[in-house]
Design a protein that fits this description.
By secondary structure, the chain is of the alpha+beta class. It has three domains: 81 residues; 143 residues, Sandwich (Immunoglobulin-like), CATH 2.60.40.10; 104 residues, Sandwich (Immunoglobulin-like). It is 26% helix and 38% strand. Strands 2, 4, 5, 7, 9 and 10 form a six-stranded mixed β-sheet that branches. Strands 12-18-17-14-15 form a five-stranded mixed β-sheet, with no helix packed on it. It has a four-stranded antiparallel β-sheet with strand order 1-3-8-6, with no helix packed on it. The longest helix is centred in the C-terminal third of the chain and has 54 residues. About 13% of the residues have low confidence.
């Protein structure tokens, strides 16, 4: 039984090698987005204004431009609309005046655009003057609207009448616009939180994908300066990841993502996201813990160590066996010599 131990040990090592080198396949969901080509005929310049600061009761004026990129003359109808942000946290969705009424960041009713109807020749640019009239009771904080331009085949009289037929025809035309950001001076609340910081609980090898949401409960939009620090078991910072900044609108959330590009690692790690925001430099944080365990590498090292130990045991046993045989041969020879010496003594006596 003892002589079979190395053989069994080598068999066990072979099984471990097979398991360690067998690839593990994880199911992945691939999402294919069908992209539809669109022929954009208009270009708003700029697509978004700089933040305009205004006091209650104050009036300000600025201008934007619209370029006709098509090869034909376009009749353009222009209007202002409030908007909300879609679930992706970045896409503006126009809303009606009735829908915007309960929203304290509504802006469209403060804006006056001239002209509202314009004819633009091919590859020409039209200038639009915008007047902001903030009411005396304007709430402090952010107010947001969009100036929408839409080509139409209707006549100027029909556009002025805005009957339902014209609106239906216009709805299928491409729209472009400029987002307008206005901040009313006053006591503005600034508060934000990091929510749903997610990532894998453990990985074999990097990179490690992470995501989180920033929820803005402020009266104004924020553009948080965000980074993620990765700390190892000893509390040492192994990496600092900068996250691209983006606007988060009032009472909305926006998802962000980041990647820890480290390939090799061992042990527990902590990812700490820090988002600095607001005029007073406030900070929102969250922590995520995960493990990096390169189990295949560990198994391979163990297999190599076990193989070396098994080889040493086999070689040692072989060496001891040969030593035992030689020892027995020597003992037999010594016994034979002693017998010959006794026989020799007997013959002389």
């Amino acid at each position: 039984m003892k002589n079979n131990l190395p053989v069994k040990l080598l068999a066990f090592v072979s099984v471990i090698v097979c398991l360690a080198t067998t690839p593990f396949v994880f199911a992945q969901t691939v999402e294919e987005n069908s992209v539809k080509d669109t022929d954009l005929k208009l270009m708003a310049i700029p697509p978004r204004t700089e933040v305009i600061s205004i006091a209650p009761g104050e009036t300000k004026q600025f201008s934007i431009r619209l370029r006709n990129l098509s090869s034909t003359t376009q009749t353009i109808a222009t209007e202002t609309q409030d908007f909300i942000i879609s679930d992706d946290g970045k896409t503006p969705i126009p809303i009606t005046e009735q829908e915007a009424a309960p929203l304290h960041w509504s802006l469209a009713q403060w804006l006056t655009v001239a002209p509202t109807i314009a004819t633009i020749n091919p590859n020409q640019t039209a200038l639009y003057n915008i007047v902001i009239q903030a009411p005396e009771n304007a709430l402090p904080g952010g107010h947001y609207a969009m100036i929408l331009h839409q080509p139409t085949n209707a006549t100027l009289d029909e556009l002025n009448n805005k009957d339902e037929t014209i609106q239906t025809q216009s709805s299928v035309s491409p729209k472009v616009g400029t987002l307008v950001y206005v901040v009313v001076k006053g006591n503005v609340k600034e508060e934000a939180f990091v929510r749903n910081f997610q990532g894998p609980q453990w990985v074999e090898l990097g990179p490690v994908e992470m995501s989180f949401e920033i929820e803005n409960l402020s009266d104004i939009h924020i553009a948080p300066q965000t980074k993620i620090e990765i700390k190892n078991f000893f509390g040492q910072t192994t990496d600092s990841i900068a996250v691209e900044s983006a606007n988060v609108f009032p009472y909305a959330s926006r998802r962000f993502s980041a990647t820890y590009d480290q390939v090799w690692g061992l042990g527990p790690y902590r990812a700490i996201v820090t988002a600095a925001y607001g005029s007073e430099g406030k900070i929102a944080t969250a922590t995520l813990s995960f493990w990096m365990i390169p189990y295949r590498l560990i198994l391979t090292v163990l297999v190599v160590i076990i193989s070396i130990i098994a080889s040493i045991i086999v070689i040692r046993r072989h060496y001891l066996h040969r030593t035992d045989i030689k020892t027995k041969q020597i003992e037999i020879l010594e016994e034979r010599v002693k017998e010959l010496e006794r026989e020799s003594k007997q013959q002389r006596g």
